[in-house]
Fold this sequence. Notes:
The protein is an alpha+beta fold. It contains five helices and seven strands; from the N terminus they run E-E-H-E-H-H-E-E-H-E-E-H. The protein has a five-stranded mixed sheet.
Amino acid sequence: MRIKFLPSGVEIPVDPSKSLLQLATENGVKIKSICGGVASCSECRVKIVEGTHCVPEPSKAELNLIGTSYFLDGRRLACQVRCFGSITVDLTEQLNKADTQKKIKGMKIKDQKEIHAKQDTMILTESKDQKK
């Protein structure tokens, strides 16, 4: 019994005592989760593309969090899914989240001016590069 993650093709063994999120984290497969697996953020949504018969139906708590997405395309919360057989999980949505949520470390401004303070007054002067 194995869990296969797409699109990477990584396979890990099934452990019914642990959630899909726990198994993925322990085996180096990244699934985003803000709440740490307590079913309160819904960031760990994944799509089970094969083996849906090997996982229990979602609980009321999970359905309240994921809403209609389960009924529309079968997405589940990785923190709530336990596997009892081989499944294939599509992590494409997770990869797209990682690409679109990068932190901005800073920005460059082209026309920076030197700032000098004299007696509680700020005086802005152009740098030598800007005068050219």
